[in-house]
Design goal:
The chain is α/β, with parallel strands linked by helices. Helices cover 31% and strands 22% of the residues.
Length: 260
């Protein structure tokens, strides 16, 4: 591979997909142009692989960091996995069930809930255009879980932060927070991928909009925050582009010189 080749990692929600969870035409065209220019294109998302399979096919991308860094695939091959500790998740589940705070567990193929129905799950999963997952009380014990979702309001979160320090909690919705292994991040996933690829740090770019993108934008050579991004992201980004709905990806790629 060319030593001066460039790679760009794109978040999905609020970055590739707009506020209606649709892919803007300008974004699709910009990514096609990137590939024509010889730039390597990858995805870095908090989503599970099964949650963005259609998008990967539409953009013809088979390299991605998923579950906020816990499951990394390079050209269709799984190169890094970092599942949650079963024992520690069982302890958290016991407490969350006492508090009536539901959970959703995810592996690379599907997701299951520990409750049959809950309004917080409907509201937050619905914002991603997904239905309430089926209940499966044994799913945690039967498979490797790479990410869990805890459905609580922010006012109830501190108890978990204090009691479960082996986990990293990242809020993504007013009713839900991701649960990752301590130290887990998109940056770790990207680092694992770059161990396979001879990219120089200055040739690594990333675009994101959420709190789970902070480490990624800090880690890469050039981090670009979407105009619709969380204010904390603007503090660590090298550049800030327009809103995702205002051709933000196309504009950002032009800002950093990857589209002429």
């Amino acid at each position: 591979m060319d030593n001066n080749k460039k790679i760009v990692f794109f978040d999905i929600d609020g970055t590739l997909l707009d506020h209606n969870k649709e892919l803007p035409a300008s974004t699709k065209q910009a990514i096609a142009k990137l590939k024509e220019n010889g730039v390597y294109v990858a995805i870095a998302t908090g989503r599970a692989p099964f949650m963005f399979e259609d998008l990967r096919q539409e953009l013809n991308i088979d390299t991605f960091v998923s579950f906020n860094g816990q499951y990394v695939v390079f050209e269709g091959e799984v190169i890094y996995k970092n599942p949650l500790s079963l024992e520690k998740m069982q302890l958290l589940r016991k407490y969350s069930e006492q508090q009536k705070h539901p959970l959703v567990y995810m592996n690379h193929e599907t997701m299951k809930s520990n409750v049959t129905d809950h309004p917080f799950i409907h509201e937050s999963m619905g914002s991603l255009k997904f239905l309430h997952p089926e209940q499966d009380q044994n799913f945690l014990e039967e498979t490797e879980i790479y990410q869990a979702l805890l459905f609580i309001e922010e006012k109830d979160q501190q108890t978990y932060l204090d009691a479960y320090k082996d986990f990293h909690f990242i809020r993504w919705h007013s009713y839900s927070t991701d649960i990752l292994p301590k130290g887990g991040s998109k940056a770790i996933g990207i680092q694992r991928m770059l161990e396979r690829l001879p990219f120089k740090k200055e040739n690594v770019f990333a675009f994101g909009d959420g709190l789970n993108d902070i480490e990624m934008l800090e880690f890469v050579g050039t981090g670009v925050a979407m105009g619709n991004g969380h204010p904390k992201l603007f503090e660590v980004a090298d550049r800030v582009t327009k809103d995702v709905g205002e051709d933000g990806i196309k504009h950002g790629l032009e800002l950093v010189g990857l589209l002429k």
